Structure formats: C-alpha cells, structure tokens
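User: My collaborator and I are trying to settle a disagreement about how two of our proteins should look. Neither of us wants to argue from intuition anymore, so we agreed to look at predicted structures for both before our next call. Could you fold the first one, then the second, and keep them clearly separated?

Assistant: That sounds like a sensible way to settle it. I'll keep them separate. The first protein:
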Amino acid sequence: MINTDSVLHGFTDLKNLDSLGPIVLNQAKGIYVYDQDGKNILMLILVYGIRSWF
C-alpha cells in the first residue's frame, strides 16, 4: 500500500509504483543514470523538459 501522506510527482503511475516499487537511482554518467540493479536509463524526460522551455 502506498503512503499517500508523502509527496508524489503529479505524473506518478500509482499502479506501477504499488506493484513494482520505486526506482532508486545510484549514479549518473553522461546522459545515463543507473538504478540500484545497475541498469542504465536514458534520461529522455530531461530532454523533453528542456525542449519545453524553448
């Protein structure tokens, strides 16, 4: 069960968060961030966020 007393981002997928748990990021290098399992994740969200400013 998710503790809704904590602050969640407006686009948080609560169904996946409840079933899969949170993604914990451990380190970053260049455009990649690495989760606790060592998988790298391309930061496309950052790219789209920057594009929306221009």
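The second protein, kept apart from the first:
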Amino acid sequence: MTLPHLKNRNVANFEGARCACHVPFGHRDYYKVTLCKNKATITYAEKVVHINKPAVIFTEPGTPYAWDSKEPLLKSYRCVFNEAFAQKNNRALLNFSVFQPGKQKIIFIEEEQLPKLEGYFKDIRAILATNYSFAEEKVFALIQLIIYEVLPKCPEVIDGKSLKKDSLSNRFFKKLEDHFSLLDDDTPLLYKTPSDYSKMLAVHPNHLNRVLKKSTGKTTSILISERVIEKANEFLTHSEWNISQISYALGFENTSYFNQFYKKQTGTTPGQSRLKNV
C-alpha cells in the first residue's frame, strides 16, 4: 500500500506493510528507511547481504539496490523522503552515521525491538494519511526516534561534535558521492584528482590529504580510486554498457587506460570481472 505525499509537498511518503517480493535493481532518487521482517537478499551497490532476522535498512539517493525474497510477500514498512526533507533542521537526519557515505546501512535488530519500531512506522503512516497539524515535524521526529532505537546496534555514530571536527572529511565525501551519483553516458566523470576536489573545497591539496589520512587512514588519491573502481563494478554488473561506454563515463581518455587502471587496482580486467558476474 502506498499512501499519498504530504498535502502540496513532495517531501515524504510511506509504503507498507506488504509489497512485491522482488524489486529490480536500479538507482533511486530518495532516502528510504525500511523495516524488513522477512528473510531476504539485498544487493546494495556491490554488496550482497542476506537478511535472516529483522533489520532496519537505510538507503541514500544515487545508490543502486535490489530486493529479493522467496516469501510470497515482503513484509516491510518503508518511509521515503527527498533531499528537501532531509535538509530540514540543519541537516539533523544526515548527521547520523547511517546516512554518511561508507557507513553501516543495514542494522539487524532484536525481536523485542519490533513492536516499538513498528509503532513508529505505523504512526508515520497515520500522519501521512491525514492533514495532521505539523505533519512534517512529527514525521521528522519519528524518523529520528527510529534511528535512535537502532543506534546501539550501529558501531559508528556521528554526533554534532565529531561532525564539526571532521567537517572537511564529510564535505569531501559529500562532493565525491554527489559527483558519482550523476554519472551517465552524457555526464562523464570530470573531477578525478585530489587537486580537483581541493579546489572545490577551497583548501590546499596537502591539507585535504592530511585530514583524510587522519580520519580514514587513506590518501585522497586512494579514496578517489576506490570510488572509481566501486562505480566501475556497479556498471559492469548492473548495466548493459560496453567497456568503452563505461570507460568514457568514468573519465578515461580511452579504453586502454581504463583497462590498465582497473587491472592495477583489482588484479583482473573489466571484461573478466563482468564474466564472473554473468
């Protein structure tokens, strides 16, 4: 069942409690918070995760994913919201680690937590089905309560203090994800070097490198390269593009350079990698 958007505002939506057992792979343009009660398999970017107990799943725009369950119907509650809604209250939702790039997105929960979490999702559904006063604020608060309920199960939490301390790191990852989420055959990768990102962030390349090395243990170049490989693998596994099209989208001057880069990073060629996933 899909309930209507908030009146006159395309900011939040609700889906549940039963939906199709198979959702095909694709990119999504919304944030989603999902309570899944079935046994299912989730393909999230390059990762395949088997759900064998209740879990809450957090999905960001631009990240491809798919659901598959052998059960007739997928029992789930899902709240969907867009960027405008996520930016409310000084980006309070996006400050949580579950919405940060590279952080844990699938949080397994205990059976005793289910009634409380289901209650939150049902409250969201009820609010969105009416012309409730301060509906957006109430839905926003309920999403925060859902996150707080699962945070003890999540090993990494970003609070206001640490977010401020590592703001350059977070801004870098935000720029990185924003740029990679736009890639297609008409919009190839334009920002490929540490210098490109340091210019966008208005800092010296060496300073950016030091901050990232301290917060992640990796250099700017390594982080960019890893994201290129991750995106390449997404294209190889889940698109019908040929190697030349993928090479162009990722900003390589020719396919030969892309093949050399990919093999150096992974030990195999793009073509061999694609065959493994057929």
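Some points you might bring to the call about the second protein. Confidence is low (pLDDT under 50) at residues 1-12, 17-27, 156-166. DSSP finds twelve helices and ten strands in the chain.
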